[in-house]
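Sorry to interrupt, but I need a hand with the structure work. It will help me judge whether the discrete encoding reads sensibly. Write everything out right here, beneath this request:
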Amino acid sequence: MANLALLAAFTVLLPASYSLGADTDNLDKTAVPVQDKALIATPDANSEKPSETGKITPESTTLPKDVARFRLVYGQSEGTYGYDSKGKKVNKGLKVEGTGGAGVFEYGITPRLGFQFLVPFSLKTKVEVHNKETFRNLVKAGITSEVNSAFDKIIADPTLGALYNSNSVAPADIAIPGLPTIPAGANVKSALDGAKSQTLASQLSDSNVEKIYTTEKAKIDDRDFDKGLGDIETGVRYSLSTIDEPFFSGIPLYFSVAGGIRWNTSGYSKSVKSGLIPNGRGTTDLGLRLNAEYGIIQGLQMQFENQTEVMLLKGKTYTSGDEKKEVDYERSGLREIGWAKLVVAPGAWLPCTDMFRLNLKYGYDNDAKTKTDGELQKESASQTRSQTIGLSFDGLTMGLPLQADLDMTTPISGKNATFANKSNIFTLKTFYRF
């Protein structure tokens, strides 16, 4: 039985909002003591300015000048099903689990320009047979497909195919490797159909299925994932429209643009050569991002982000088999990744809850095709859709230069996705003014 190659490179956890130049911020204009405002240099550092509850800082806002933010991102994800090329949910009886995150440093260069340096890391990833019966059925389907394919090749022979399709008898003995000889005068179709049925019955016997199941399970259990540092990212963001200086006076509409590079630093080709599933993407990519927000009412804001990625420099990988050959690894076309999010600040109506933010996000990721040794990926690239429920705590409202986010993501739909992962991501943020 052919190897059930069920796994693709598995990148754990990091959503687009933590990559390629993101400078997301929650420095809300709220009641922060003077000494803490001086520390983080929030826009309303003037203590005589009255406090407002329910303020939501746009995602496009950069950090104030000479203010740094440190973020530690940690998350866990798991997936038990994926999606086929038509978007149908597929459960192969496997389960993947991963833990990882990132360390992020951000800095306000000017009041409108910010810089980011991101280092992702993978702590542990494993895949295992989660449901034996489902995986055994997958093995049986694979056996049936192989037997059918083998007989399709037999009748692809012009002479045999003509005799089979015309329901004719054999003009002479016909010897077929691996099968009983079809004697002269025997009906070719009946003989081949009978041989096929006997082969299927033999191959699908409980003992043979269990044997192949054990072999394939061992292959799954033996798959190792690379861990450690991933592809380092650097980026800058420029705010085109801010709360203090909007494009249109009196209209709470804000924009920013960002650009960044994801460097091929994870050791992709080395991982493949060692038989590991890589931690990174294998190429050096350029990302361009647009953020836009609109304040619906006090305490309610709509946010949108789209990031377009294109390969800058190709990488290297290795062919499978005993004699591994180093070949070029590339990405063809554009990757589009982003989200639309509704943010609620309950402090607008209940001031005692002003330290909390709630959000509901719809996310999408349309990946680019890969090209290995000049050969373009035949099937369509992976596409996924997800929903996220988020809860944030803003210590700035209590005089603490500390913020925390919890985002819980579940898949909605997809295509050509080996695993559709749900995840829980925790982010801790702190600030320092230079």
Q: What stands out?
A: The radius of gyration is 28 Å.
